[in-house]
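To: structure subgroup
Subject: Chain for Friday's discussion

All,

I'm putting the inputs and outputs inline so they're searchable in the archive.
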Amino acid sequence: MVKRIVLVLGILLAGLCLYVGILWVKNVWPIGDTSLKNEGVGNLVIGMDESQMTQYYPEFAYDSGVYYFHDADGFIVTTDSKTKKIVCMELRDKIDGQTFTTKKGIGIGSSFADVQRKYGANYRKKNTEIYGDMVEFQDSNTNQKIGFGMDYKNGRVTVVVLYDYEKYKFPY
């Protein structure tokens, strides 16, 4: 009787480990490259010096190592503290009077079909704590990833995140 209980518990534990392993592999397994060369949001690109950024958008405010466009809910740009170059951009909301989109024309409210048409089919679906469901594309030549938060119910983009994955570990 005890051997059966141990056997059943062992099988359940092995199944749980397999399930967790599959979830982990799904989030880190390599995906095919999508060209993100010269990709950016608005006039900004990864690697741009922060002084150039403020020339394009003097409205950015600086607080605790991060630039905010008007407030913390709209558009956030993170720069490397040593090099003063952009390492991450998060477009979280539409901003009145601005049309912030990626260089390929994807922004808040764009359709999932538009994302696939512009960026292709080499993406990884992931569920994140911060933004929920996302699709993520990567370019190993430029060390960049771009993620689009998705509201699958409405089929629309809810957030755009572009970052250099070698210099910045995005806290999904």
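Points worth raising on Friday:
The longest helix spans residues 2-28.
Strands lie at 40-41, 44-45, 60-63, 66-69, 75-79, 86-91, 124-128, 132-139, 144-151, 156-164.

D.
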